[in-house]
Structure prediction request, 407 residues.
Amino acid sequence: MKPITAVVLGAGSRGATYAGYAKEFPEDLQVVAVAEPRADRRDLLADALDIPEDGRFASWQELLARPRMADCAFVCTLDDDHTEPAIKAMELGYHVLLEKPMSNSEDECRRITEAAERTGRVLAVCHVLRYTPFYMTLKDLIDRGEIGQVTAVNQIENVGYWHQAHSFVRGNWRNTAETSPMLLQKSCHDMDILLWLVGRDCQRVQSFGSLRHFTPENAPEGAPARCTDGCPHADTCPYYAPRLYMDMSRTGWPVDVITTDLSEAGRRRALEEGPYGRCVYRCDNDVVDRQVVNLEFEGGAVATFTMTAFSADFSRQLKIFGTAGQITADMGTGQIVLHRFGEEKKTIPVDTASSGHGGGDYGILGDFLHILRHGGESRTSAKVSLQSHLICFAAERSRKEHIVVEL
Ligand SMILES: NC(=O)c1ccc[n+]([C@@H]2O[C@H](COP(=O)([O-])OP(=O)(O)OC[C@H]3O[C@@H](n4cnc5c(N)ncnc54)[C@H](O)[C@@H]3O)[C@@H](O)[C@H]2O)c1
Prediction:
């Protein structure tokens, strides 16, 4: 089998994830070029994949100024820098794997959708949950009619206290002006999954939420600007950065986000100088730390969704109520329990061993490559994914204006 060729635009965490697939399955995927302004990240990825010097670019703008050099492009830049590279790549003839959210602007999401249709390129948005054995099993149970008609769904996204601190207080997605609102950034996945499971269009939404805890008023007495400045609460604060990042046995995400130099000195320097050593009560964050969304679907099914920073676990849980039974499911433990009314409960086994979003990262990439070889439509095409994004924009409006928004 001849490998599909790809260029990676943005060699951060996500770019490296997809590059990892090329390393593991070189017969399926070959990365021929990378664009990344940070030389350390660019070289780390390029060296791992033996990409020659003339395949290393300082930006997507430079790479896409050249004629097309591969079958597809992986757009793995940050949320506010997806639209132009995705559209330019499709216009050059690349098929595109686009990280979510498609964009942090509704208008740009529509432009991307229009460009995918106009150019006829395959565009898959990385709603990786649709490709996990866990959610595929739930979808299959519903589609087989095991619980009758879906009447209601409750889904909880337990972000996890340390993950919130890492990504949404200290990290990339802490400030709406620079990135996306938290619901769009983190939970467009959940809106997408609810749409997929219910199988009907969403008609109206309502949302509540705010930033409550990670603010200067909540800083414990005497807490300095950085954990490394001799914080008196080092032993008791769950967010104390050296505890989260200095465990030398840990080398993967999220530790590899703070620096490419994973030595003790490298990590310490990153905490002393970079964003991840800051006190969580003294950052420039403004995104919510918990939010709820209520949704009503065509046909009358309803759903409620809770995203919260304040959880010890880092997983999704849901309960799906049907006219003939219920499903209780926990992605963290991989447990799915089907209880049809009047029958014994049944536990459905699910593969939870797969890493990378429960198998979703490699699942979506494998499916994308399969479509490029054999044709077909992505489960998470631009047109499909636009719907979950529109729900997020509407929910944000509802949260801010205290209104129910019709879609
Ligand atoms: N599908 C998922 O479940 C999932 C999970 C996490 C993140 N994401 C999304 O993936 C995207 C990337 O996230 P990440 O965690 O990899 O962030 P990151 O910060 O680790 O990586 C982004 C990279 O883009 C690079 N970059 C900036 N300007 C560039 C340019 N002009 N040309 C090329 N590269 C440029 C940055 O230097 C950085 O290395 C985000 O939109 C994020 O929301 C998706």
